[in-house]
Amino acid sequence: MRSIINLLRKQGIASPRILFTTYTSALTAASEQLLKRLLGEDAGLVEVRTADNVTFSIVAAHDGKPRILESKEVRALLKDGTVAQRYDAVVVDEAQDLDATVLRTLIGLCTAPDRLFVTADANQSIYGSGFRWTDGHADLRFQGRTGVLRKNYRITREIGEAAQAYLQGGALDHEAVDRTYAQSDGPLPVMRTARSTSAELDVLVRFLKVASREARQGLGACAVLVPSEALARQRRTVFVAMTRAMRALLVVSPDAPSPLFGGFDPRLWNVATPALAR
Fold first, then answer.
1. What are the structural domains, with CATH classification, of the chain?
2. Residue 29 to residue 97: CA distance in whole angstroms
3. Does the pTM exceed 0.85?
């Protein structure tokens, strides 16, 4: 983001207006905090919103109430000047699950096509829509203007490599990438099976106490993610959940055969026998 601001200033825009969109309200709040640390006073140049909120406000301003627009209606709004607010640059984060119409709207809010910046990871897609970038806009062709972010700043090598090995059967993007990690090395992620709910809770309590103490974090830094029955059938959804862990990871499964809980390589995972009820 700092590079974008510096680039715009070199082009004569002293106080650029930048739109940064992400996928959820939680990510919006986290992004605002991070930008304040990175940019200082310049964080005020960046408006952080969810992509859905941006399109919602445009439709509400036009019709007085929210409704679903057809793609041709979006194009008309952007073309006839109904949407007066434009940005010197637009940054779209977590774009892999965006609808084509939403992305098309964000493109239209940018004053110049070469000031649109999009980040996406197909394997982090929850919905797997199979969206193609060229569906968003005829000018959205990134040949010669793309880069692969190879360094992971969130998780340890152990968690990253174990999650990637688990994902292989459900990957959407099979491009080979040499991954590097900014975090210091950590323990192997843990895989346990439990024969009862009480045994599962016992494993969770013991793991969270040890992991939080070793990471020098309070229990508030821990999260327990429980997939719904529908999402639990998707291997890629479990991968996304795995890669939310920064320092320590535990996966607990029921003691029953399931394709979802297969493929835990003992070279990458701390795997043990089922936990018994106490």
1. 2-147 (3.40.50.300), 157-271 (3.40.50.300)
2. 19
3. no
